[in-house]
Task: structure prediction
Amino acid sequence: MEKISSIYTIVSVSVLSLLICGLSACSSRPNDAILQSRLPHIYPDYAGVTIPVGIAPMNFNIVEADEEDAYVEVEGSKSGNLKSTGCLAHFDVNEWHDFVAQNRGGQLLFKVYVKRSGEWYSYRPFSMYVSKYTLGEWGMTYRLVAPSYEIFSKMGIYQRNLSNFDEEAILENTQVPGMCINCHTSNRTNPDAFTFHVRGEHGATFVRYNGRDEWLKAKNEKLGGSMVYPYWHPSGRYCAFSTNDTHQMFHSTPHERIEVYDKKSDVLVYDVAHRRILTDSLISTKDWSENIPVFSPDGKSLYFVSARQQIYPEDYKKQRYNLCRISFDAATGKFGNKVDTLIDAASMGKSITWPRPSYDGRYIMYTLMDYGYFSVWHNESDLWLLDLKTGENRPLRDVNSKRSESLHNWNINSHWFFFTSRRDDGLYTRIYFSSIDDHGKVTKPFLLPQQNPLVYYRRLMYSYNTPDFTLKPVKLNARKAGEVIESDERIETRF
Result:
């Protein structure tokens, strides 16, 4: 905990200094500044990151000790410049967008000046690189949840405009007190097909398809559980789910908190058009736990993870998931006659979770961990990339940290992805962005921009969870949804 404590000491001092810094802000470049050989201390660490055109301003805090004032200049390698005064480097949204667009494919050079004890100091400049790849999304959706274990405190599904800092709730559990709202996703980032699950006394699975909203009965006697971890078929007619008998237990060691495991789980496909559940003995077995299904971008395959059943909770560390695939015929709703194991992680003493194919069909990104599948609680969880074209399977070393990486998703053009990580403070999951080029090279991740990042993230007592890109805002009448959830209005599912 020494590292975390030191971070909070620096941050607490810096937050206090923000109240003082810049009261008489410098409006032009300081003359005769004393040159420093190192980079400035800023939060977040945006030095060397690659950003897309259209992203919200990359504001950052200057966290040098005893700073009295600061001044920042930004020069574009192609054209333009910006400046900011005070210890929060902040930029006008419209000016930022124009400036970044002018420098697409180039770089932005940041020069930071800090005043301490009446003297001005200049630091080694750093660059941000502007990608040639567009983001192509309006924004993102995610769940915000407190790191509680036994009760559902305030939580909800939210959406954020990635071109600015606007955030709004899609649905909060203030409309459905005491219940958990989770497991949401769109079809290829388009919320015209949208689903999420509500867990609790009035459990339900919401499915939006072809202009109609339906609330499914969360549990089916034959199913044996709820429909969770959804993923849409590209046609929009089908949505894959798993059904899980989930439990949790607590560790007594100081570096581990909680373990989440399934006594059993199976994979199924819901035929949205005909309101029926499709399954097969190959993906719903007694001796194996099948979990977290995802369709291939062409819709011809269903990927999932599978682990041999163990004795729980005694042998929870022996539960190791492999990456598997079975063919799927969308015309008939039939599965293939065999399951292929793409990565035998168990033979390596590892476990795979959260497979996510890129929408161009080139890659599958997944999380690798020592055991189990609930990666958010595992510090050793890292992102890996399977190249379906070459067969290369590798860790994303330029992205991973010493803490948990998990819950990632791709944008529609498959050149951007984000993921949740606890690298910031070890306590809360935050969202980081990275890009990948045509040769598979990934860029240094950057933290989701905020107007005042230091103040925002140190005050936010919630973790980001299950993020997804969205092509446009999700439209949902939260009051009406709350009324339906509290009622018994449900559609029965059938096999």
In short: Residues 1-14 have pLDDT under 50 and may be disordered. The helical segments are 2-20, 93-102, 453-459, 478-486. The CA atoms of residues 67 and 116 lie 5 Å apart. Residues 2-130 form a domain with the Immunoglobulin-like fold (CATH 2.60.40).
